[in-house]
Amino acid sequence: MRSIWNGAISFGLVSIPIKLVNATENHSIHFRQIHLADGGRIRYRKVCELDEEEVQGGEIGKAYEDADGTMIPITDEDLAQLPLPTAKTIEIVAFVPADQIDPLQMDAAYYLSANGVPAAKPYTLLREALKRSNKVAVAKYALRGRERLGMLRVVDDVIAMHGLLWPDEIRAPEGVAPDGDVTVRDAELDLADALMDTLGEVDMDSLHDDYREAVEELIAAKASGETVRPAESGDAGGGKVIDLIAALENSVQAAKKSRGEEEAGAEDKSDGEMADVHPIKKTSGKPTGKSSAQTTKKSTTAAKKSTPKSTGAKKSTSTTKKATGSRSTAKKTTTKTAAKKQTSSGGGTGTKKTASSRKRASA
Q1: Could you give the CA distance from residue 71 to residue 74 in angstroms, rounded to a whole number?
Q2: How many CB atoms lie within 10 A of CB 280?
Q3: 3 state SS of 22
Q4: How far is Cα 56 from Cα 50, in angstroms, rounded to an integer?
Q5: Which is more confident, 336 or 27?
Q6: Are residues 294 and 288 in contact, defined by beta-carbon separation less than 8 angstroms?
């Protein structure tokens, strides 16, 4: 890795020569501005506003603009004469627990490399001291023309430094919190905890930039002359959450499905769930009597007017029982009528046979 700064760590009276190396890199895809008419690249040129002539880098200096617009030139020699003890030194000022550093202060990250063989011993000493104390070192250093605040900690076997913003550079979160008092119920918190448990932990190394990969595929497709198909638009979920409990329950189920977990048991039914009412099926035999037909109509009407309440389901059940009883009564009545007809028809035949026998006897 190429070093961007050479200096030393000041650890009391111990000086540790080090090199400063960038610990992060930017993988963002950068675009150029072009002229849409002919595809020519748009370039920026530095032009003096007084004579409107282009100025080269060697002719450009720096200045401070006063409140009235006056430019006060500042040279590199002026800055070099300032009493800045951290110009080439990372000066450790304190050792504090890591939780005392607000993550909002963290800025760029660097690796500190021992510069030369003589620096290996004091470098290792500071590294092991930081490990054993479970603390981080707060330091001051100068980089790119300004003094900065830093935090030194151990990453594997390397001392890393995080640039920190000064405390007065952190803005207070005024007017950011929701207005008014918002009450959160225990049931909502329980579901939120269940969702957190379902999502669980993740291997940070498995996370990657999906958007960057999509842009790379788009560029490759256009470079090869392929037709680019528009991506399917998914539900952004930007609507208002009407029922927070339902949204949390659905989120838990979706998280379980995404992780391939089977649902444990059937879902509990809510208090306001509609009761299932099944209409009475018609049989092939037609019931006799007006009472059976009227009872069947009443049961159908009661089934249509049934409500989600349990009382409506009970009424529908009792009405169904009445309709069933009426049908059985109608069947019994039909059976009895048929039996009477058979009896009467059988009795008439016997009488005719007796009469004919008497005629033969008298003859």
Answers
A1: 9
A2: 14
A3: strand
A4: 15
A5: 27
A6: no
3-state helix, strand, coil in the chain (%, to 5): 40, 20, 40
Length of the chain: 363
- The pTM is what? 0.59
Q: What is the DSSP string of 143-196?
A: ETTEEEEEEEEEETTEEEEEEE--GGGSPP-TTTSPSS-----HHHHHHHHHHH
Would you call 150 exposed, middle or buried from its count of C-beta atoms within 10 A (0-12, 13-18, 19+)? buried
CA distance 256 to 29: 34
Q: Which residue has the higher pLDDT, 136 or 177?
A: 136
Q: Is the pLDDT at 143 greater than 70, yes or no?
A: yes
**CB burial class (10 A; 0-12, 13-18, 19+) of residue 139?**
buried
- Structure-token pair, residue 48: 């003096």
Sign of CA dihedral 91, 96, 97, 98: negative
Q: Which of 240, 243, 241, 242 is nearest to 187 (CA)?
A: 243
- Which tokens belong to 167? 């405390």
331: Cβ contacts below 8 Å, ≥ 6 apart? 285, 287
- 272: nearest Cα among 252, 247, 246, 301: 246
